From TrEMBL:
A Pfam family of this chain: CRAL_TRIO_N
Naturally occurring in which organism (per UniProt): Moschus moschiferus (Siberian musk deer)
Function text: May play a role in innate immunity by inhibiting the antiviral RIG-I signaling pathway. In this pathway, functions as a negative regulator of RIGI, the cytoplasmic sensor of viral nucleic acids. Prevents the interaction of RIGI with MAVS/IPS1, an important step in signal propagation. May also regulate the SLC18A3 and SLC5A7 cholinergic transporters.
GO CC, alphabetical: cytosol; Golgi apparatus; nucleoplasm
Compartments reported by the entry: Cytoplasm; Golgi apparatus
Boundaries of every GOLD domain copy: 521-674
Keywords of the record: Cytoplasm, Golgi apparatus, Immunity, Innate immunity, Phosphoprotein, Signal transduction inhibitor
Record's subunit section: Interacts with RIGI (via tandem CARD domain); the interaction is direct. Interacts (via GOLD domain) with SLC18A3; the interaction is direct. Interacts with SLC5A7 (via GOLD domain); the interaction is direct.
GO terms of biological process kind: choline transport; cytoplasmic pattern recognition receptor signaling pathway; innate immune response; negative regulation of RIG-I signaling pathway
Name of protein: SEC14-like protein 1
Top-level taxonomic group: Eukaryota
Domain CRAL-TRIO, residue spans: 319-495
Amino acid sequence: MVQKYQSPVRVYKHPFELIMAAYERRFPTCPLIPMFVDSDTVNEFRSEDGAIHVIERRCKLDIDAPRLLKKIAGVDYVYFIQKNSLNSRERTLHIEAHNETFSNRVIINEHCCYSVHPENEDWTCFEQSASLDIKSFFGFESTVEKIAMKQYTSNIKKGKEIIEYYLRQLEEEGITFVPRWTPPAAAPSLETSLSCKKPAASLTVVVPDPALKEGLSSEPLSTPSGAPEPTAGTPDDKLDADYIKRYLGDLTPLQESCLIRLRQWLQETHKGKIPKDEHILRFLRARDFNIDKARETMCQSLTWRKQHQVDYILDTWRPPQVLQDYYAGGWHHHDKDGRPLYVLRLGQMDTKGLVRALGEEALLRYVLSINEEGLRRCEENTKVFGRPISSWTCLVDLEGLNMRHLWRPGVKALLRIIEVVEANYPETLGRLLILRAPRVFPVLWTLVSPFIDDNTRRKFLIYAGNDYQGPGGLLDYIDKEIIPDFLSGECMCEVPEGGLVPKSLYRTAEELENEDLKLWTETIYQSASVFKGAPHEILIQIVDASSVITWDFDVCKGDIVFNIYHSKRSPQPPKKDSLGAHSITSPGGNNVQLIDRVWQLGRDYSMVESPLICKEGESVQGSHVTRWPGFYILQWKFHSTPACAATSLPRVDDVLASLQVSSHKCKVMYYTEVIGSEDFRGSMTSLESSHSGFSQLSAATTSSSQSHSSSTISRWRFC
C-alpha cells in the first residue's frame, strides 16, 4: 500500500529571496538535522542571465533504525538524490527528491515548493508532498514503513524551525534584505519588470473567511487594495498551517495531511457545497484518521444531507408547539472549556406522549435541528474564545426517570435517533454529564450503550443521587454562576419543564404517515377499527415455547374487550370484513378477522387470557409468556353495555344506540412484539413497576393486573 503525505501551506512572513538565502545554509550539512550527515553536488546548471539555477545533490542520511535491521540490509547510510530548481524570475523553488538506496525495494518520492504568497509579494509560501511504496524489505516491510514515517514526520516538524533559525542567523550578521533578481540589461523592459512580480502559477492560497477577519497570527493579514475577497470552497483553495492551528487545533503532520487530502478529494469529486473543515475533521477523528473509512462515511452522510435537505433545516422547519411545550431540553450558556452546553431533563419528559403525539419523524427532525444549532454555536464560540471549539457538552438530568421511560417503542425510536446522529454528527459530543441517575438507569444503559460508539462512551460521566455536588462533580466542568436552578444553582434555566402530553394531542398512525418529509419509514403503531360483530384480530406464530408476546395499545374511541387465543392450526388467510348490512368502509384503520365462524371455542382454539375490558382513553401494556408453540390470536372486540338486569325488555337508550351505526365503532392503535424469555427480564420488570406512575408528573392513576399462564397485563388511565 502506498503511503501519501500532503502538507498544508506554511507561510513565512519574509520575502522569497531572504528565505532562499536561509535555505542555502542547510547545505552541505545541517547540524539541526542529526540524520543529515553530508551532501555532495552531482550536477549543476545556471542560465546565462542567472535566473535559472538547477543543482542536484547526493545526500547521505543516517536513519535511526535498529542496528539489526541495518545489518540485515547491509548498509549503514541511506542515500537520496535531491534536485533543486530555482527560478529567480518567477520566484519559485521546486525540490524533487527520491531514494537511491534500495530503490528496487522501496520507492520514496518527495516534492516541495517555495513560492510567493499570492496576496502579499513580501511573504513566502511552502508546500510539500511525498509518497512511500515498500515493495519488499526482507520481511520487515511494516517495520520499515513505521521507521520511515516516524523519521519523515519528525523532520517536517523541524522544517519551519530550521528556516527561522537561519533567518535569525542572517539577521545577526546584519543581512535583513536580499535584492530580487534583475536581468543583466541596465534598463529592464516593462514585460520583464512585470514578470518579476508575477506569483507562482502552481500555487493558489485562499485563506478561509474567518481568518481574513481575525488574521492568521498575531500580525494583521492585509490584502491588496481592491482585490476581491477570497472564497472558500473553490477547487484551488488550500489550507494555511496557521489557519489550521487557529480554527482546527493542533494536528500532527500526518493528521494535517489526511485532512488536506480528504478535502481535496471532496473538492474534485463533489460538485457544489462540501462540508466545512471542522466537520471533515470530525469524520477523520471518528475513524482514527483512516482516510478510506472517513471518506466512505462522509460520502454517505453527504448523500443523506442532500436527500433530506438537512442544510436548510434551521431555516425551513419550525418545531411543532407540542415540542416547544413538552420537550424538556434547550441550550444553556457554555462549560468551562467554552463548549456550548445543552441541558436535557429526560426524567421530566413524557417520551411516550411525544412519540404518540408527533411520531418519530418530528422527533428526529427536532434532534437534527438541535445538532445543526450545536454546530453553529461551536463556530460562534471558536470566534469568541479564540481557540478551536468543535463539540458541545450535554447535561442530562435523570431526576424522575422510572420504568415508564423504558417503553419499548420509545426506546426503539431513541435507538434509531442515536444511529442517525452517530452516523452524521461524529465527534460532536465533547462531554456528557449524567446527573441524579436512579436505580432504573442501568437497565436503560444496557439497552442503549451497545449502539453508542466506544469513543463517545468514554466521554460519559455518571453521577448518582447528589454526587454531582461533591469533588469531581459539576463544578469541575461548569462555572458556579451558570449551574441551573433545578440543580440547586443560581442561574435561571429557561429549558421547558416537560410534563405529560395531553392524550387529546395523540395522533393516529395514518395521520403521522402523512408527514411531508420522511427521514425514515418505520411505523411503530398500527391502527384498526372495531365494529359490533366485527372484531379486529392479528396472528402471531410462535415456534419456541416460553416466548413472550408483548403489546401496547390505546383505545382511541369506544370500549373494547381484549382477548388472547391459541390454536394448533393456522387460520385461513385474513380477509377484510364487509361489515354485512352496514356496508361501511374504515377510513381510520383496517379491520381483519381470522377466527372462522365455524370454529368452536375449546375445540378449534382456546382462550389463554381472561378477557380484559378496556375503556375509551385507556393505555394498555402487557405480556404473555407462551406455554406451547403454535398460533396465537390477539383480538380487540366491541364491548356492548349490558341491558338492565331487572327486566328482559331493552332499555330506550339501548334501542336508540342500536339505530346509530357510528356508536358501534371503536378505534385502537397497537404495537406488538415477540421476544425471547431470556431477553424479557428488563421488560417484565418495567411492566410490573409501571403502575407506580410517571414520576411526580402523573395524575390520578388506576391499574389493573390480571395473570394467567405466566402473563402480565398492566393498564393506566391518565386524567
